[in-house]
Hints:
The model has no long low-confidence stretch (mean pLDDT 87). This protein has 561 residues and is α/β, with parallel strands linked by helices. Strands 1-8-7-3-4-5-6-2 form an eight-stranded mixed beta sheet, covered by helices on one side. It has an eight-stranded parallel barrel with strand order 10-11-12-13-14-15-16-17, surrounded by six helices. It contains 23 helices and 17 strands. α3 (74-82) packs across α7 and α17 runs parallel beside α19 (472-485). α15 (390-410) links the parallel β13 (380-384) and β14. It is globular, with a radius of gyration of 25 Å.
Amino acid sequence: MKLSGIGSTPLSGVGTARWYRPSDLTLPEQPDPSDVDSDAEQARFEDAQATARQQIEQARQQAAERVGEDEAAVFEAHLQFLDDPQLVDDIESAIGEGTPAEHAVDDRFGEAIAQFEGMDGRMAERADDLRDIRDRLLRSLLAVETVDLSALPAGTILLAERLTPSDTAELDPDSVAGIATVTGGRTSHAAIIARSLAIPAVVGAGEELTEIEEGADVLVDGEAGTVVVDPDEDERAAAGGVDAPVVEETVSTADGVEIEVAANIGGEAELDPAVARGADGIGLFRSEFLFLDREAPPDEAEQYDAITTALAAFPDNRVVVRTLDIGGDKAVPYLDLPEETNPFLGQRGIRLSLGAHSDLFETQLRALLRAAASEHGDDLAVMFPMATQIEEVAAAIERVESVAADLDGEGVDYAMPELGVMIETPAAAFLADSLAERLDFLSIGTNDLTQYVMAVDRENDAVADYHDPLHPAVLRAIDRTVSAADGNDAWVGMCGEMAGDPDLTALLVGLGLDELSMSAVTVPAVKQQVQQTATNAARDLAADALACETRAEVLDVLDEI
């Protein structure tokens, strides 16, 4: 049997099928409203809310440690849903009218889930987030134990109707050889977490998946999007991901152009997996992970230790640290940041570092300059996020020089790292030539660049279809950035999700990127694509894509590869 679905993680795995069947959440028969103690039921609901809130906060912390802050952000959304005034008010109103708490929760969340499922694209996939919260509440109200997914036998191919983000975050990638689900989409939060854990995954395989028996030998090919029962040797050999071996050294194109393929890192736990996947250093070290989930900011010593640990993991490889990037979708409660109507257009990134929180910036710079003088510090690079003005960059460089002078006066060893800036706004793309004259490198953050070029909140599912880096306007912003750096002694990298898509590697090589940085799971596949790419052909491909006027035309060009 061979089933087709949606490949979520571009890896393959073979193992023994084991079905995940969530705890039975069948509700008891609903009593007559006159027999219900509404006050007692309200108290039960509030207790269930408190329990769910504690569990979600624990899940967020666990996910942040295992897969990084960006992926763990889904649980922040879960907390918002849990306290959503409309949902809570409706549940409490039903309880007040004599509905038991579990029935009120099931009814109201059921309506919301149905509404999301009736929508298109990513909005439909958010229904699983609501299920996750509903089931937490019901397990608490019904006193039902959860199924432990953290202790599955080695070599498990986990089959399920669906997996919630919480389910997926529990999985041990050393034990789970693959995941296949009946429903789901590539951009669901569960699928994103599976990719971060480097677990081969196929979602949306359909009802035929339920015909696979417990204990069957199953191949999950997350590259091709297929699930094969009793695969033969040819099928195993042809599986995507199997033929993308780890290459420890830096790779070059078929005609000898070297391309650095690095990893994005959001926590110390991600260092070893990145090394194991053959990453050429770190293209994005998200330093904000040091500032989150705590009651006070990290001191200079803690930041120095974290940076030198990263440098030691990649000796003789470049490590690019992004200075503190908070604001927007990253809140830090102890900093008491003001609420903003549109935080993505407000105080974030370098704006905060040069403004209200310059003390944090100087502490971080001290740690960075000291780390640059450490054993492996020769390869340290530092980049500033969210720059939109030359004055900001000049002020940041001046602050670096001031910190260096302070360290020198104190007799503390330090060195000057490479300095760069994130290109994630149209302003930065238009100023790329001036930036390249002043800095050692530019790093294109395609997630935010797409957001700002297309005027679309990347956290707003209603406009998710607009958030596409293959839109001609975004491609031209990338091309403008690379072209502006040409002739200046500055290299150009990319650290957005676009960089980790092997199907786009030839296009990015053709656009002239020197470095690509991504989730570690896709490093081997991208390295393989680099080696198979001829530079001249890639440049022709990029030229054709840049001449397109619509995304559909760009896709047609890419389909011709």
